[in-house]
Amino acid sequence: MNSDLVDKVYFDQDFSIYHKIKIQHRMERPHFHDGYEIHYTQSGVTEYYIDEKKYHGGMGTVGVINSHEIHRVVVDKEEEYERYFIYFKPGYLHEFYDQYPELNMLFTSRFVGFENCINLNSDEQIVFKHFLDELYTLSQDEGIYLRELKSKLLLVRLIIFLNEKFMTQTNVKTPVEYKGKEQLEDITKFIRHNYAENITLDLLTETFFLSKSTIIRIFKNNLGITPVQYLINIRIMTSRQLLKSGHSVKEVSEAIGYKDESSFIKKFKSIQGVSPKNYVKQNNR
C-alpha cells in the first residue's frame, strides 16, 4: 500500500487544537486517528465523508469522529475555508470519564441512530467559538497557570455542550444519498466482519455480483481509497486494540489475517507512522 494515501494517524500529544484558514483546501486522502476529533467549520462549504456516510456542511457545522472512523473533509475549491479541529487521546480525560461515563456519548457510548454532524444556530456558534478560542489561547502559552487543568475543564464543558445538542437531535445532519451507497455499505460491512480472511477483489465481485471497475469506482468516489486499501485500514485499526490488550505482535498479525509477522509490521508502520512495538511503548507511557 502507498502510505501517501492515508495520513499518519498517531498523536504525539494527548491534546491539541488547531485553527486554520486556507483557500482551495482539499483533503483528497482519507485518514483515521489514534484518538478523537472534533471538527468545526467556521466558514466555507464542506462535505464530510465519515465511513460510508456523507454529510453536507458549512458555517456552524460540527463533526465528531472516533478512532475507528475513516474520514475526510472536501471543500469547495473556490471558497476560503476556515476551520478549528481538536484532537485528543481517549485517556486525556480519563478522570472525568471514569466518574461520568456518559460524557463519552460523542465517541464510544453513542445511542442508536447517532449521526456524526450537527449544525449550530447563530447563538450556539458564538458560544462554541468562545470555547474554541479559549482553548486555542491556552494551547499557545505554556506559562499560563495550571494550563493543562484549565484546558481539560474547558474541553469537558465543550463536550457537555455538544452532548446536549446531539442528544436533543436538533439540527442534526442527515446523511445525503449518493450513487452506490447501498452497495458500499454492504461491501464495507462484509469487510469489517471478515477482515481476517483472504478478501480479494475477485471474491467481492463474486459475492456482490458487481464488476471490479464498479466496486473500485464506488470506493474511490466516496471513501477515496480502493477496497484493498480499506481492508488494510480495518486490519490496522483492529490491531491497535489487540496490541493495547497485551497480545504479542505475532499473535496480532495472525489474528487480523497476515501470514507473516514482517508484512504486518510493514503495513502497520506505513499507516501509523510507528512500529507495533513502539506503538505499545508510547501508549503505555
Automatic annotation (TrEMBL):
HTH araC/xylS-type domain boundaries: 185-282
Entry's Gene Ontology molecular function annotations: DNA-binding transcription factor activity; sequence-specific DNA binding
Gene3D superfamilies: Homeodomain-like, Jelly Rolls
InterPro entries cross-referenced by the UniProt entry: AraC-bd, Homeodomain-like_sf, HTH-like, HTH_AraC, HTH_AraC-typ_CS, RmlC-like_jellyroll
This protein's UniProt keywords: DNA-binding, Transcription, Transcription regulation
Any Pfam family hit: AraC_binding
Record protein name field: AraC family transcriptional regulator
Species of the source: Vagococcus allomyrinae
